[in-house]
Amino acid sequence: MTDYGRAVQFGAFVTPSVELLANTFELAALADETGLDLIGVQDHPYQAKFLDCWSLMGMLLARTERVRVFPDVACLPLRPPATMAKAAASLGLMSGGRFELALGAGAFWEAIGAMGGDVRTPGQADPSSIIRAYNVFGRVSDTPSDKMFHGTAEQRVSQLTELAVETGMDTFVFGTDGDDLAQVRTFATDVAPAVRAAVDERRGTGARA
Q: What is the pTM of this model?
């Protein structure tokens, strides 16, 4: 694989659980405050314990001022394309352009089929033509770890920098158990800026959008 030279972006991964709603609002405010680029919201319509992704995204956009919001990722088999396109355009217009649309082919096919969605097979896409986002789950701690995406901030910076310049990944959305606010703050303040600087240094040139 290769580095496509895109600007590196960072986000926070939101679990749209009914029980975590208050925490979700705090997480969105934290992302807005600390300079993260994105908030990604899981879209699993068949999950009974989750809020509707699109309803929640509208609320998060209304409660923030700078950060962009996207479905991580939209469940295509259960979202009619024309209806989803209109919802995306509406959220983009009402938020001043802060909505992004990320698409997913689906993964939990039994649950999708149970809700009347089409069960599909994987396809292919040219990775150089799209923004490539990676959900990064783990924890940042004071002690090193041999486990990927765990350990110190310095380890995380090294790992994400390598992914950006060696595999073409350009967008990293951080997730942790329980949507831990302290972990998200550490990622936003200690990891994201350092990765941007390291990627710029490795590339030696300005990134493209």
A: 0.84
What tens digit of pLDDT does each residue of 87-134 get?
999 999 999 999 999 887 656 567 767 767 666 666 655 556 667 788
> What are the strands, taking DSSP E only, across 9-96?
9-14, 38-41, 68-71, 74-75
CATH number at residue 172: 3.20.20.30
Q: Are strands 103-104 and 74-75 parallel, antiparallel or unpaired?
A: parallel
d(CA 93, CA 136): 29
Give phi and psi for 188, each to the nearest 5.
Answer: -70, -35
**Contact criterion met (CB below 8 Å) for 9 and 172:** yes
Domain limits at 159? 9-203
Rounded Cα distance, 11 and 176, in Å: 12
Check residue 107 and give its pLDDT.
60
Query: What gap in Å lies between CA 125 and CA 140, rounded to an integer?
Result: 33
Domain-embedded: residue 104: yes
- How many folded domains does the chain comprise? 1
